[in-house]
From TrEMBL:
Organism, scientific name: Chryseobacterium aquaticum
InterPro entries (alphabetical): BrxC
The protein's name: General stress protein
Name of one Pfam family that matches: BrxC
Amino acid sequence: MSFFDKIFGGKQEENQAKSFWNYIKDEEDLRIAIENSYAYRIAIFKHSTSCFISKTVLRNLEKEIEESDEKGAFYFLDLLAHRNLSNKIAEDFDIRHESPQLIVIENGKAINNASHQSITLSQITS
């Protein structure tokens, strides 16, 4: 791994997907995620794969999740690949789009959201 890959994250790192993520790739995935929010709290992480800040926030959040006992449902949206879904989420929940962004949903309603360095596991658990 090169020096720049260590700092900015390389292709190898992107292929190491965490097992706790549920990926939102279409409207059906989003519908299922929202439906699940009626049974338990869910969190959607909107990630820009080309943004250094988003990659850093993602790594920090993933580390927090791995080190916790939290057993929530974590959803991941690549907003560059699925911008239409990102826009739909912003519109449906009346939340201004940001990236990176974490939106916590319970009973079909957004109860919390954060962006950039404000994203922490505590947004989900509190």
